[in-house]
Task: inverse folding
């Protein structure tokens, strides 16, 4: 008799749990999928291509791909230049023969605006992108690598063409990259 009561109670509990589960609302599922897509895209754009974060010391901070630099980059010239920090102000001076775009212009030195201005000055050095970040009293250089998954701008290209463009950038010198970009605009 006791076993029968337990079986009936278990059956009632199971039936009530099944009845309590409702199918998910279509609007909820749609908003969840949108949120999930935005989250994944944000990770691809901002975190997966992160190649480094280097906190600057006051004064000169050498950077390049050689191990004797204070800031060692994953690729590029062995001794690319110097970041100079004075309080929260940062300037960059590239060494002779180093080609880069600073703020979308070819230059060899410039004052750099930090990310807190909402318009950071971006240094384009081959497949690397660098900009100044401020976090409280700390000032640093965040380095992104176009060769890493996801950090690509849509320059009017399809996703497949952008992927090929970035992948090919990872195998060429900065001179070849600039030449290919110029050729693309001329055609």
Result:
């Amino acid at each position: 008799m006791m076993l029968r009561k337990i079986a009936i109670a278990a059956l009632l509990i199971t039936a009530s749990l099944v009845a309590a589960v409702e199918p998910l609302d279509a609007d909820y599922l749609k908003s969840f999928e949108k949120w999930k897509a935005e989250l994944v895209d944000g990770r691809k754009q901002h975190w997966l291509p992160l190649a480094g974060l280097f906190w600057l010391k006051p004064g000169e901070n050498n950077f390049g791909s050689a191990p004797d630099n204070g800031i060692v980059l994953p690729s590029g010239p062995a001794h690319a230049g110097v970041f100079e920090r004075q309080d929260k102000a940062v300037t960059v001076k590239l060494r002779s023969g180093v080609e880069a775009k600073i703020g979308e212009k070819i230059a060899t030195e410039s004052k750099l605006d930090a990310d807190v201005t909402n318009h950071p000055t971006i240094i384009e050095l081959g497949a690397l992108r660098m900009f100044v970040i401020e976090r409280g009293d700390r000032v640093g250089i965040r380095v992104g690598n176009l060769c890493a998954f996801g950090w690509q701008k849509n320059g009017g290209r399809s996703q497949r063409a952008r992927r090929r463009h970035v992948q090919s950038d990872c195998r060429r010198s900065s001179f070849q990259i600039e030449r290919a970009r110029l050729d693309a605009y001329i055609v």
Remarks:
- Confidence is low (pLDDT under 50) at residues 150-168, 172-187.
- Helices lie at 2-20, 26-46, 159-169, 174-186.
- The chain has one domain: 36-187.
